[in-house]
Structure formats: structure tokens, C-alpha cells
Write a structure and sequence with these properties.
Length: about 260
């Protein structure tokens, strides 16, 4: 019993540390940002800026963008390390692998990810438009980077970063640890979805609801497949489209 209790305490501490270094921290900031916006004006008058310039010097901006993307993935490395066992890597523990490229990457992950993107992406655009019309969603500017030769590649890297960070930590790591702590599957799915929605609250209540529903779908699929790779593929494709073609998809125009 002592060993089991010790493991439970360790797993709870791991959850707090990983989330405190990554998306749990983002959720706290998102809540504070939402409250600040609501005390200033209606949320519909707020703007949520993604992928912003760091400095008005081209190659220093590129350097900062790449560094931000690199260091944002350090909590992912920590989560995978904590899931590691002598006979099984952290990648294998959550299905973040491509052991059989033809079957895994092409048929299971790529096609599954494209299907998920279509399932999630089109309703998300409609929900964003509805939220804007109802006044519960901020104007989202998916990119205000300057038009350099490296802008699109950096946006793609940012999309991949977001997908890996969110799916590995919010789905793979968190749901694995909650299951080990004795949580029932549906409660792990709901907890994961609530976290996903909460760090989008800076965008308003519409994105919170949309990401919560997305989290329920992704969490349910993970309990069935035990693989985060299709979720990473779907999330990457969604963000690549949003970041690269934001104005064409109905999002705000960067300055």
C-alpha cells in the first residue's frame, strides 16, 4: 500500500509540474486575460493575436520565433521522459510512434488525421462566426508576422509545435496519469477537454466551447486507439490552414 500511495503522490506531482511549465500555466494566464478584457469592454471588442513579431529586424525575429518554438517543446520532452519505462519508451506509451510507416503514418495517422481535420475544422469556422455574431468571441488574428521568405515555414513549425505540445501533454500524458490514479475513462476525457478549452479562454467563450468539444472527441478517440499520432496530424493540419490562410478563412487580418 505504501508503494502505491507513493506512486500516486509522485504522479500527482508530475501532473502539477508538467502543467505548471506548459498548458496549465497558459490556462491561468488565459483566465486572467479574459477577466481583464471583460472588465475593459465586451469580449467581442478584444483581439487575440497569434504568431506575432518579436522584433522589427528580420533575422533576429526569425531567431526568436525558432527559439520560442524550440523551448515550448521542452515540457513535451519532460512528459515523455516521465512516461518512460525500461521496456517501453514514452513515445510508445502514448502511441506517438511510426513503427510501420506505410500502415501507421499513411493509413492510420494521415488519413485518420485528415478525416478528423474535416470533422473538426469546418464546424470550428462556423462556431467562430457564430461566436463573433453573438459577441462572445474575440477577433482572432492568426498571424501578424511580416511578409518574409521564412514566414510560411515558421507558421508551419508553429502549427506543428502547438499540435505536439497539446496532444502529447493534454491527451497522452494527462489522460495516462489520471487513469493510473484511478479515474474512470470518461472523467479523464472531460478533464482533458476542460483543460484544452481553458487555455483558449483568452479568445472568448466560443473558442472555449469549440475546443472543449474537440477535446471530448480527441479524448474519446485516444481511449479507443491509444495513439496520439492521428490527433497530432489533425491538429497540425488545422493550425497550418488557420495560420497560413487566416483572412481567407474568416479570421482577422494582421497588421
Amino acid at each position: 500500500m505504501g508503494r502505491v500511495a507513493g506512486l500516486a503522490r509522485r504522479w500527482r506531482a508530475e501532473i502539477l509540474i508538467v502543467l505548471g511549465l506548459s498548458l496549465g500555466q497558459s490556462a491561468v494566464y488565459a483566465v486572467v486575460n479574459l477577466i481583464e478584457n471583460l472588465t475593459r469592454a465586451p469580449i467581442s471588442q478584444a483581439t487575440a493575436q497569434l504568431n506575432t513579431p518579436k522584433i522589427n529586424r528580420e533575422y533576429f525575429d526569425l531567431t526568436y520565433q525558432l527559439l520560442d518554438n524550440f523551448f515550448a517543446l521542452v515540457p513535451v520532452a519532460l512528459a515523455l521522459y516521465l512516461l518512460w519505462k525500461p521496456a517501453r519508451s514514452g513515445f510508445q506509451a502514448i502511441g506517438f510512434t511510426i513503427s510501420r510507416p506505410w500502415r501507421d503514418l499513411l493509413w492510420r495517422d494521415l488519413l485518420g488525421g485528415i478525416g478528423l481535420m474535416l470533422l473538426i475544422g469546418l464546424p470550428s469556422l462556423g462556431l467562430y462566426a457564430l461566436g463573433r455574431s453573438l459577441g462572445v468571441t474575440a477577433q482572432i488574428v492568426t498571424s501578424s508576422l511580416h511578409d518574409y521568405w521564412w514566414t510560411i515555414p515558421v507558421l508551419i513549425i508553429s502549427a506543428l509545435r502547438n499540435a505536439v505540445l497539446e496532444e502529447v501533454i493534454v491527451v497522452g500524458f494527462l489522460m495516462t496519469r489520471l487513469k493510473q490514479l484511478g479515474w474512470q475513462p470518461w472523467w479523464t476525457i472531460v478533464a482533458s477537454a476542460l483543460l484544452r478549452g481553458s487555455y483558449h479562454l483568452y479568445q472568448g467563450f466560443g473558442p472555449f466551447a469549440g475546443n472543449f468539444v474537440m477535446g471530448l472527441i480527441f479524448g474519446w478517440l485516444y481511449t479507443k486507439t491509444k495513439r496520439v499520432m492521428p490527433l497530432v496530424v489533425a491538429h497540425s493540419l488545422l493550425d497550418i490552414a488557420a495560420f497560413s490562410f487566416g483572412p481567407q478563412l474568416g479570421f482577422g487580418q494582421g497588421s
